[in-house]
Amino acid sequence: MKIIHTGDVHLGSSMLALPTEKAKIRRVEIADTFRKLTVYAKESGVDAVLIAGDLFDGEKVSRAVVDETLATIRAAAPVRFFCVFGNHDGKTELGELPENLLLFPNTGRQTTYVLPERVTLTGIDGDALGGMDYQALQLPEDHYNIFVTHGEIANHTRRDQDVVCLPLLQNKNVDYLALGHIHVPTTGVERLDSRGKYRYCGCLEGRGFDECGVRGFFLLEIENGRLKDEKFLSLAKRTVQEVRVDISSCHTYFELESAALSAARSAGEENIIKLVLCGTYQENLRKDLSVLKTRLSDHAFFVKIEDCSKLRIDYEACKNDVSERGEFIREVKRYAMDESLREEILEVGLKALAGEEIDL
Ligand SMILES: [Mn+2]
Q1: Which of 180, 227, 286, 348 could form a disulfide with 52 if both were Cys (CB 3.0 to 4.6 A apart)?
Q2: Residue 228 Cα to ligand 1 middle (Å)
């Protein structure tokens, strides 16, 4: 049987990292990627889709988003969706559930479903983890036992909501701990104990600039109580990418723009790009970041520019410079201060002396 492990979809997310119109488009794209997952599940004969929490982004999610999602799930029958709640689902009122959407009753205890092919599926909502009775967990040795929840792995035994106490889950015949909460998919193998492993599925689409890289879901194939195959698949429309551009060798704005443009192109023009300018730049280089952002915006879905480049000052050459500029540089160099503060003072001061606009 085939099982999908997904979660952290964050439907209805406000996408604050993007301007209003682009945020709206991304909200639709994320819903569409979830819909594509359900279509993929149905067409590929997937038996169960595990949603490891945060299907929705919070209590403010509109009724329309909830209804649309439930309709998407209903349309994917006979695929069954097993959904635990995460810390962002809030108290989303789902209303009448589709028959193929199964939740885990929030009684403070885990619930186990027995699936075909000797598979068991146990789950508990993230906020119930604080009171979970780990001792009561008993899973058959000759089954493939999946445990799904929403929380962060901890190597201690202090129970709390959204905390999975790894030591308490060990030697309980768990084969696959399907987690949500951390938005980066686990690519390597993280051992739960000598038998099982744990894994975060990550989100389906990157949203903020802290969610760079490929996003997707895991597909497991289990045959008669044994894992036969597993893979990571992506249906994401876009990725969030961070690209660094060293501007040390740029002499003009246009050289800078061309370096930035080729970096943006290498990241894929359909993507969301955080462009980080780095290196050291010569004093009279016009950086003009707002112009750069506008001109790059045709080459990516959205570009955010972060300037980490530092002004390059040749103190030796300034030694005998009798101008105001030389005097200013020598003065700033004379005082003991944090280097980053010195760089900032020099940058602003030199711009002021050159009669340029200062952006404080
Ligand atoms: Mn989340």
Answers
A1: 180
A2: 29
Centroid of ligand 1 to alpha carbon of 54 (angstroms) = 5
State pTM to two decimals.
Answer: 0.90
DSSP, residue by residue, 87-124: TTSTT----SPPTTEEE---SSS-EEEEETTTEEEEE-
CA of 145 to the centre of ligand 1 (A): 24
In the chain, the N- to C-terminal Cα span, in Å, equals: 60
Q: Residue 256 is which amino acid?
A: L
Among 233, 254, 284, give the residue marking a domain's end.
233
Tell whether 40 and 167 lie within a shared domain: yes
What is the spatial distance between Cα 183 and Cα 202, in angstroms, rounded to a whole number? 4
- The verdict on 200 and 248 lying in the same domain is no
| Binned average pLDDT, 10 residues per bin, the chain of 360 residues | 97 91 96 98 98 90 94 98 88 87 85 95 94 92 97 94 95 97 94 97 94 96 96 97 96 96 91 96 89 93 94 84 90 90 89 80
Same domain, 50 and 39: yes
| Ligand 1 center–CA 63 separation, angstroms | 20
